[in-house]
Amino acid sequence: MSDQPACELCAASGGLPVHRTLDWRVVRVADAAFPAFYRVIWNTHVAEFSDLDTSRRRACIEAVAAVEQALRQSLAPTKINLASLGNVVPHLHWHVIARFAWDSHFPQPVWGKAQRKVEPAAEARLPLALATLDTRVAAALHELSPAVRG
Protein backbone atom coordinates (compact mmCIF):
# COMPACT_ATOMS: atom_id res chain seq x y z
CA MET A 1 0.00 0.00 0.00
CA SER A 2 1.08 3.57 -0.44
CA ASP A 3 0.73 7.16 0.66
CA GLN A 4 -2.85 8.26 -0.20
CA PRO A 5 -5.29 6.77 2.36
CA ALA A 6 -8.32 8.07 0.41
CA CYS A 7 -7.18 6.05 -2.61
CA GLU A 8 -8.51 2.50 -2.80
CA LEU A 9 -5.22 1.14 -4.18
CA CYS A 10 -3.14 3.04 -1.63
CA ALA A 11 -5.27 1.89 1.30
CA ALA A 12 -5.62 -1.79 0.32
CA SER A 13 -3.80 -4.40 -1.73
CA GLY A 14 -6.34 -4.38 -4.59
CA GLY A 15 -6.67 -8.16 -4.70
CA LEU A 16 -4.96 -11.37 -3.64
CA PRO A 17 -1.21 -10.60 -3.43
CA VAL A 18 0.90 -12.61 -5.89
CA HIS A 19 4.22 -10.71 -6.04
CA ARG A 20 5.51 -7.41 -4.69
CA THR A 21 8.63 -5.35 -5.39
CA LEU A 22 9.65 -1.96 -4.05
CA ASP A 23 7.99 -0.25 -7.06
CA TRP A 24 5.00 -2.40 -8.03
CA ARG A 25 2.83 -5.29 -6.95
CA VAL A 26 0.76 -7.88 -8.76
CA VAL A 27 -2.54 -9.14 -7.40
CA ARG A 28 -5.22 -11.51 -8.65
CA VAL A 29 -8.69 -9.99 -8.66
CA ALA A 30 -11.42 -12.11 -7.06
CA ASP A 31 -13.89 -12.28 -9.95
CA ALA A 32 -15.79 -15.53 -10.47
CA ALA A 33 -16.57 -14.69 -14.11
CA PHE A 34 -12.92 -13.89 -14.91
CA PRO A 35 -10.72 -15.96 -12.60
CA ALA A 36 -7.48 -15.20 -14.49
CA PHE A 37 -7.74 -11.43 -13.90
CA TYR A 38 -4.58 -9.80 -12.57
CA ARG A 39 -3.58 -6.22 -11.79
CA VAL A 40 -0.11 -4.70 -11.92
CA ILE A 41 -0.31 -1.81 -9.45
CA TRP A 42 2.31 0.91 -8.98
CA ASN A 43 2.99 1.14 -5.23
CA THR A 44 3.27 4.92 -4.90
CA HIS A 45 0.32 7.08 -5.81
CA VAL A 46 0.65 8.32 -9.38
CA ALA A 47 -2.25 8.75 -11.76
CA GLU A 48 -0.66 8.37 -15.18
CA PHE A 49 1.89 6.10 -16.80
CA SER A 50 3.80 9.18 -18.00
CA ASP A 51 4.22 10.25 -14.35
CA LEU A 52 6.94 7.60 -14.15
CA ASP A 53 10.45 8.21 -15.42
CA THR A 54 11.73 6.08 -18.30
CA SER A 55 13.29 3.34 -16.18
CA ARG A 56 10.18 3.00 -14.00
CA ARG A 57 7.89 2.93 -17.05
CA ARG A 58 10.07 0.16 -18.45
CA ALA A 59 9.88 -1.78 -15.17
CA CYS A 60 6.10 -1.40 -15.04
CA ILE A 61 5.46 -2.51 -18.61
CA GLU A 62 7.90 -5.41 -18.24
CA ALA A 63 5.81 -6.60 -15.27
CA VAL A 64 2.66 -6.33 -17.40
CA ALA A 65 4.34 -8.33 -20.18
CA ALA A 66 5.55 -11.00 -17.73
CA VAL A 67 2.02 -11.51 -16.38
CA GLU A 68 0.65 -11.67 -19.92
CA GLN A 69 3.25 -14.23 -20.98
CA ALA A 70 2.65 -16.40 -17.90
CA LEU A 71 -1.10 -16.41 -18.62
CA ARG A 72 -0.55 -17.26 -22.29
CA GLN A 73 1.83 -20.11 -21.49
CA SER A 74 -0.29 -21.51 -18.66
CA LEU A 75 -3.81 -21.13 -20.05
CA ALA A 76 -3.61 -20.74 -23.85
CA PRO A 77 -6.45 -18.17 -23.75
CA THR A 78 -8.25 -16.90 -26.83
CA LYS A 79 -6.96 -13.38 -26.05
CA ILE A 80 -5.28 -11.34 -23.34
CA ASN A 81 -6.90 -8.00 -22.52
CA LEU A 82 -4.66 -5.20 -21.26
CA ALA A 83 -6.15 -2.00 -19.89
CA SER A 84 -5.02 1.00 -17.87
CA LEU A 85 -8.11 3.15 -17.55
CA GLY A 86 -7.99 4.76 -14.12
CA ASN A 87 -11.34 6.47 -14.57
CA VAL A 88 -12.79 5.08 -11.34
CA VAL A 89 -9.55 4.61 -9.38
CA PRO A 90 -7.01 7.25 -10.49
CA HIS A 91 -4.00 5.26 -9.30
CA LEU A 92 -1.70 3.77 -11.93
CA HIS A 93 -2.60 0.12 -12.47
CA TRP A 94 -2.85 -2.23 -15.42
CA HIS A 95 -5.45 -4.94 -15.85
CA VAL A 96 -4.13 -8.16 -17.41
CA ILE A 97 -7.03 -10.51 -18.12
CA ALA A 98 -7.01 -13.91 -19.80
CA ARG A 99 -10.08 -14.15 -22.04
CA PHE A 100 -11.69 -17.20 -23.58
CA ALA A 101 -14.24 -17.63 -26.37
CA TRP A 102 -16.48 -19.35 -23.78
CA ASP A 103 -16.35 -16.58 -21.16
CA SER A 104 -19.55 -14.76 -20.24
CA HIS A 105 -18.68 -11.51 -22.01
CA PHE A 106 -16.45 -12.55 -24.94
CA PRO A 107 -15.85 -10.80 -27.32
CA GLN A 108 -17.12 -7.80 -25.33
CA PRO A 109 -14.94 -6.21 -22.62
CA VAL A 110 -15.24 -7.63 -19.11
CA TRP A 111 -17.00 -4.43 -18.08
CA GLY A 112 -19.53 -4.77 -20.92
CA LYS A 113 -22.74 -6.73 -21.24
CA ALA A 114 -22.71 -10.49 -20.63
CA GLN A 115 -23.19 -12.51 -23.81
CA ARG A 116 -23.93 -15.91 -22.26
CA LYS A 117 -24.17 -17.90 -19.05
CA VAL A 118 -21.11 -20.04 -18.37
CA GLU A 119 -21.60 -23.60 -17.09
CA PRO A 120 -19.59 -25.07 -15.49
CA ALA A 121 -18.20 -22.04 -13.69
CA ALA A 122 -15.28 -20.20 -15.30
CA GLU A 123 -12.68 -21.31 -12.74
CA ALA A 124 -13.59 -24.98 -13.31
CA ARG A 125 -12.94 -24.53 -17.03
CA LEU A 126 -9.33 -23.44 -16.53
CA PRO A 127 -6.69 -26.10 -17.24
CA LEU A 128 -5.04 -25.61 -13.83
CA ALA A 129 -5.85 -24.45 -10.30
CA LEU A 130 -5.64 -20.76 -9.49
CA ALA A 131 -3.00 -21.40 -6.81
CA THR A 132 -0.80 -23.03 -9.46
CA LEU A 133 -1.45 -20.14 -11.85
CA ASP A 134 -0.51 -17.63 -9.13
CA THR A 135 2.73 -19.55 -8.55
CA ARG A 136 3.56 -19.43 -12.26
CA VAL A 137 2.81 -15.71 -12.47
CA ALA A 138 4.94 -15.06 -9.37
CA ALA A 139 7.82 -17.10 -10.83
CA ALA A 140 7.73 -15.07 -14.06
CA LEU A 141 7.75 -11.84 -12.06
CA HIS A 142 10.53 -13.05 -9.76
CA GLU A 143 12.76 -13.36 -12.83
CA LEU A 144 12.26 -9.63 -13.40
CA SER A 145 12.65 -8.52 -9.81
CA PRO A 146 12.80 -10.53 -6.59
CA ALA A 147 9.93 -10.06 -4.18
CA VAL A 148 10.15 -7.90 -1.10
CA ARG A 149 8.29 -8.46 2.13
CA GLY A 150 5.56 -6.12 3.25
Explain what this protein looks like in three dimensions.
A hairpin with an 8-residue loop joins strand 2 (24-28) and strand 3 (37-42). This protein has one domain: 2-Layer Sandwich (HIT family, subunit A). It starts with 7 loop residues before the first helix and ends in a 6-residue tail after the last helix. The chain is globular and about 45 Å long. The protein has a five-stranded antiparallel beta sheet with strand order 1-2-3-5-4, with helices on one face. It is α+β, with helices and mostly antiparallel strands and 150 residues long. The chain contains four helices and five strands.
Major pleated sheet: 5 strands, antiparallel
Structural class by sheet pairing and helices: alpha+beta
Radius of gyration: 15 Å
CATH topology: HIT family, subunit A
Specify the CATH architecture: 2-Layer Sandwich
What is the CATH superfamily? HIT-like
- Count of separate structural domains: 1
Query: Counting H and I runs of at least 4 residues, what is the number of helices?
Result: 4
Portion of residues within helices = 25-40%
Widest sheet: strand ordering: 1-2-3-5-4
Percent strand equals 15-25%
Instruction: Give the low-pLDDT segments.
Output: none
Query: Strand-and-helix sequence, N→C?
Result: HEEEHEEHH
Mean pLDDT, nearest integer? 94
* Overall 3D shape: globular
Cα end-to-end separation: 9 Å
User: What's the CATH C level?
Assistant: Alpha Beta
**Strand element count:** 5
Layout of strands and helices, then pairs:
Layout: H1 8-11, E1 16-20, E2 24-28, E3 37-42, H2 54-75, E4 79-83, E5 93-99, H3 122-125, H4 130-144
Antiparallel strand pairs: 1-2, 2-3, 3-5, 4-5
Helix pairs in contact: 2-4
